[in-house]
Amino acid sequence: MKKSIPLLEVLLGLALIGEVTWAIDGSSVCQQSISGASRPHSVRITEFGAVGDGVTLNTKAFQNAIFYLHSFTDKGGAQLFVPAGRWLTGSFTLISHLTLFLDKGAVILGSKDSADWPIVDPLPSYGRGRELPGGRHQSLIYGYNLTDVIITGDNGTIDGQGSVWWDWFTNHNLNYTRPHLVELMHSTGVVIANLTFLNSPFWAIHPVYCSQVHVHNVTILAPHGSPNTDGIDPDSSTDVCIEDCYISTGTDLISIKSGWDEYGISYARPSSNIFIRRITGGTQSSSAITFGSEMSGGISEVHVEGLHIFNSKIGVSIQTLPGRGGYIENVYISDVIMTDVEVAIAVFSQYGDHPDENYDPNALPFINRITFKDMTGKKIRLAGLLQGIEGDNFLNICLSNVTFTVISDPPWNCSYIQGYSILVSPESCEPLRERIPKDSSVCYPSNLFKSELLEQNHMVNAVKSMPM
Ligand SMILES: *[C@@H]1O[C@H](CO)[C@@H](O)[C@H](O)[C@H]1NC(C)=O
Ligand SMILES: *[C@@H]1O[C@H](CO)[C@@H](O)[C@H](O)[C@H]1NC(C)=O
Ligand SMILES: *[C@@H]1O[C@H](CO)[C@@H](O)[C@H](O)[C@H]1NC(C)=O
Ligand SMILES: *[C@@H]1O[C@H](CO)[C@@H](O)[C@H](O)[C@H]1NC(C)=O
Ligand SMILES: *[C@@H]1O[C@H](CO)[C@@H](O)[C@H](O)[C@H]1NC(C)=O
Ligand SMILES: *[C@@H]1O[C@H](CO)[C@@H](O)[C@H](O)[C@H]1NC(C)=O
Ligand SMILES: *[C@@H]1O[C@H](CO)[C@@H](O)[C@H](O)[C@H]1NC(C)=O
């Protein structure tokens, strides 16, 4: 039973701490477009000469089919249907008002010839390829300036056959940064659902400079140890919903980014209003949910809830470093279950690389209002590595109702941070030992608070309407 707080006290509390209020509204993106638009026209990839034998290269067939579907963009759009079969292809580019549908048993296979993945310009917020100076290989499925794009199916598969790329990376044979499986740039109204993504050469799904992105019910797999095979990386994007996914990859399951160092700072395109819920998975050499370390355009208003993380190096991490500038602010993470995780919560600033020597070491990141609530963990080595930067304390780090079974002593390793805690076991480190103020709008977003207030109002009204 929730403790009842007199309305007056709530209102007084609001007035006293009214300076800080934050709200996260990402859930509205989750509600829209979940079923996808139905398209009045549909063609099959086989009508364009594609052969699903796993050997024939079908890049031309995909390009021709999509070129043909251009004529339907102002007529409600069209669907490109990929039936069961193994469809080998190089990179191809989507158009607006298109649904790419992969039927049960349909597998799109990425070509193992790097020449089938053309070179595109580096992203302005990175100033160069993420791993090598210069351009980058275009993703297998690519889009630019699009609206209303749906990539879905009946659990069809998009397999990047990434092992050739991982070997080129390991043996230093790459000439350009590795490609993604799906990258959409400057696009809005994107739905990716009901599919399986395997063996991406690099990060699997990369929406960058996008808005209204909904990723729902996808499976993303890459072997442990495969380099940089992040699952989903929303980058300088707003209004993003990621839900009901199973992800097991070599590196981060989901990583929110916004460019790096002087390039990210001057491009100034934040990632904000992001809602992530019901994600299951693990990553042995990385962190399940990551913020940064590329965060120079800023990251804010992020709500994560319902994580089930196992066999991972880190559960949730906030990563940054001097030179990044930018900010990570107003992040609320709740309902997390972890098993077999080395470090449950990490907030740190020691690791990460720079695009070049021209970054400003005095560009310090601003980290503020990060709340971890309702978390449990078993077989955790270290509860938290929470380390800000000397002269740049990370502020308002809140731990609320967090219970971990921890091997390390001391269980928390904290420096240069300030914050609050309540109901934390093992007991939190000294800098966070101050109790979370009652109904603190420093630690809790105001819309959660507001819903409590509504409840109070409701109770008051209920009391009022009680027969005397
Ligand atoms: C995903 O599958 C569900 C269940 O079959 C369906 O209701 C939904 O419309 C599908 N989503 C998309 C975008 O195709
Ligand atoms: C994207 O849209 C902008 C603005 O409409 C336009 O200037 C640019 O040429 C487009 N780029 C591509 C690759 O379509
Ligand atoms: C998830 O996708 C699968 C196909 O990949 C479909 O069978 C299932 O109904 C979908 N579930 C939801 C909740 O949409
Ligand atoms: C989709 O296929 C993948 C890989 O084959 C499988 O792991 C997953 O359980 C399937 N999902 C559904 C909803 O059938
Ligand atoms: C890099 O360039 C060299 C020389 O042109 C070429 O032999 C090699 O195949 C290229 N590597 C990749 C991964 O494309
Ligand atoms: C603490 O979190 C657990 C889930 O981890 C939840 O069941 C419980 O109700 C929470 N307790 C309080 C006091 O909020
Ligand atoms: C805390 O972490 C730092 C950096 O990882 C490490 O050097 C230090 O030894 C740790 N302190 C304790 C008490 O474990």
Question: In a nutshell, what does this entry contain?
Answer:
By secondary structure, this protein is mainly β.
Give an overview of the whole structure.
By secondary structure, the chain is mainly beta. It has one domain (2-464): Single-stranded right-handed beta-helix, Pectin lyase-like (Pectate Lyase C-like), CATH 2.160.20. It has six helices and 28 strands. The strands form three sheets. The chain has a 22-stranded parallel beta sheet that branches. The protein has a four-stranded parallel beta sheet with strand order 5-10-13-16. The protein starts with 6 loop residues before the first helix and ends with a helix. One 2-acetamido-2-deoxy-beta-D-glucopyranose is lined by residues 114, 168, 173-175.
What is the gyration radius calculated from CA atoms? 23 Å
Low-confidence stretches: 1-18, 449-468
Largest sheet: 22 strands, parallel
Gross CATH architecture: 3 Solenoid
CATH class, named Mainly Beta
Number of helices: 6
Number of structural units classed as domains: 1
Helix content: 10-25%
* Bound compounds: 2-acetamido-2-deoxy-beta-D-glucopyranose
Using DSSP, what is the number of strands? 28
Q: Tell me, rounded to a whole number, the average pLDDT.
A: 91
How many angstroms separate the termini?
24 Å
What portion of the residues fall into strands of 2 or more residues?
35-45%
Q: What would you call the structural class? A: mainly beta
